[in-house]
Amino acid sequence: MLIKGRNMEIIKNKKINITIVMAFFVIIMLLILFAINMKKHVKADNSASFLSGNNFVIGSDENIITSNELLYRGRVEAKDKDGQEINIKDLKVNSSELQSLNNAIRDKKDGNYPITISNGLGETHVIYAVVRQHSSGVLPRYSSETSGIKVTNGTIGGNDFTLSNTSNKYVLTRDDIISNSDVLAFDRNGKQYKASDIIVNQNMIEEINLAIKNQKSGIYPMLLDTPKGERIQIKIGI
Fold it and tell me: Residue 33's pLDDT is what?
């Protein structure tokens, strides 16, 4: 009976040990499955990534633009998840939208044309290229001291025009010039300047008014500037 009792105790202990081993095995398998499941659902941390760009103006005298020129003129900047600058060559411009923009430039079709930029990390940003039938337009100036996409000022465009009032008593004003030239300008952050922000060359206004008074017809230059120094020269006919 003693031997039988010992055998029963040994069998009981073996069952307990087997149960413990099986439980441990099940726990290990559950942990492995949990880790695999988490790996499937965890997304890349792009919290430090960055993609931005600004609206810009295109004059009717300009040619169609490439994707790289668009990225520069739109002051597009991008950084990866580690905060490192993404090379402009690695940014993608929506090709069909770029084609629509170039068609509008070619056909001199005014409008605001959206362009979607992507950084390869699943992030996109939309900027607008503003096509206006301007006689003059300028590219933003870039710093030659940096390798990145750095614009110092902004963009401005304006139209040539001819005065309809040829009376020698007519006096050309700053507001007349702003209105007739349909001037459009953006600062370096893509924010449109107000008409009151545009600087008109006062000396040139006086020269034109003197020509009007003396009934001296001709084509006269006029400088228009943004507060940050971007400049165009339009022509005014009298």
Answer: 53
Please tell me what DSSP assigns to residue 88.
G
pTM of the model: 0.50
Q: Nearest to residue 68, comparing CAs of 115, 16, 32?
A: 115
Q: How far apart are CA 198 and CA 156, in angstroms?
A: 10
Integer angstrom CA distances of residue 226 from 80, 137, 158, 160, 185: 33, 12, 12, 17, 7
Q: How far is CA 146 from the centre of its chain?
A: 19
Return the pLDDT at 147: 36
**205 and 183 Cβ atoms separated by less than 8 Å:** no
Query: How many whole angstroms separate alpha carbon 91 and alpha carbon 88?
Result: 5
Q: Name which of 72, 71, 90 is nearest 80 in CA terms.
A: 90
Under a CB-based contact definition with an 8 Å cutoff, are residues 101 and 129 in contact? yes
Between CA 107 and CA 129 the distance in angstroms is 15
The pair of structure tokens assigned to 39 is 């790996």
How far, CA to CA in Å, does 36 sit from each of 7, 23, 41, 60, 74?
43, 20, 9, 57, 43
